[in-house]
Amino acid sequence: MIWTIFLPLLLGFIVGYILKHPPKSFFFWFSLLLLLFFVGHKTGESVSSLTELGKIIGDSLVISLASIAGSIAFVVPLWRRIK
Amino acid sequence: MILLVLMSVGAGIIFGILGLGNNWIFSKGVDIFLAFLIFFVGWEMGSDVERVRSVLKKGYKLLLIPFSSILGSIIAGFIMGLFLKMGPRGGAIVASGMGWYSFTGSFLTSQGYETLGAIAFTANILREILTIFLAPLLARIDVLAPVASGGATSMDSTLGIIRLVSGKEIEPISFLNGFVITLVVPIMSPLLVEVLLK
């Protein structure tokens, strides 16, 4: 976690602070698309069949809808109190 | 761009299923490019320190919005996980991604939780897509509902639709929400993994 998260974040922050301009969006997309390709590769290695992949999508849909509902249920009453 | 994202993941899944490319770069690829992505996120933040300062000046009340959003998401993920194979702990961790699919999925995969990583990736990309499609309906509940739904993406990819359905005045709050969540998720998700899974 130190090598993949905190150290790169700190190094990036220092570079940005020195240069005072954001990186070109190309770098974001280059690293993001390659990262997603390798994430997909690991996923493909771990699932034994397309049926299992379908189940992953089903579970993901349930969790994503639940997390949206959960966030709204907590934020909206709070917002109505503080606005 | 979302199409490129889906194509990239799809190509990776096909390579993985077919067992292609089992060499060093394929085993270390996630770690390497996750580090690259986080480096550029840090670079962007460091290049605009004033933005960080202005966020901190907004006051604690507005900061309650992202934190309550995270809490609501995790609790809902935990409850829903009770009914799924991943279990409540897995559900909570997946939901803690708050729409930041490139981080949560990659992080879990890099920690050896490949299946949970795949679910986290898909669930969080779906959160982004669902926010875009549901935003007009959610705005009828409250102007801040699309912001809550967007999670980490409320500062970038869903900011445009949120501005459109909730109004210009919500834009700074939407950005603040996404910004704070983006700062919190890389710390919170690994901590949840440590506490709940190890």
In total, the number of strands of chain B is 0
Major sheet of chain B, described briefly? none
Structural class per helix/strand content of chain B?
mainly alpha
Rg of chain A (CA only): 19 Å
- The number of E-state strands of chain A comes to 0
Distance between the termini of chain A: 38 Å
Overall form of chain A: flat
Largest sheet properties of chain A: none
- Structural domains of chain B: how many: 1
Task: Characterize the structure shown.
The complex is a heterodimer of chains A (83) and B (198). Chain A has 83 residues and is mainly alpha-helical. Chain A has 3 helices and no strands. Chain A has helices spanning 2-19, 25-46, 50-82. The two termini of chain A are 38 Å apart. Chain B is mainly alpha-helical and 198 residues long. Chain B has one domain. In chain B, 81% of the residues lie in helices and 0% in strands. Chain B contains 10 helices and no strands. Chain B has helices at 2-18, 24-47, 49-57, 60-81, 87-95, 101-110, 114-141, 145-150, 159-166, 171-197. The model of chain B has no long low-confidence stretch (mean pLDDT 86).
Q: Which tags fit this structure?
A:
heterodimer, A: 83 residues, flat, B: 198 residues
List the helices and strands and how they pair.
The complex is a heterodimer of chains A (83) and B (198).
Chain A: H1 2-19, H2 25-46, H3 50-82
Chain B: H1 2-18, H2 24-47, H3 49-57, H4 60-81, H5 87-95, H6 101-110, H7 114-141, H8 145-150, H9 159-166, H10 171-197
Helix pairs in contact in B: 4-5, 4-10, 5-7, 5-10, 6-7, 6-10, 7-9
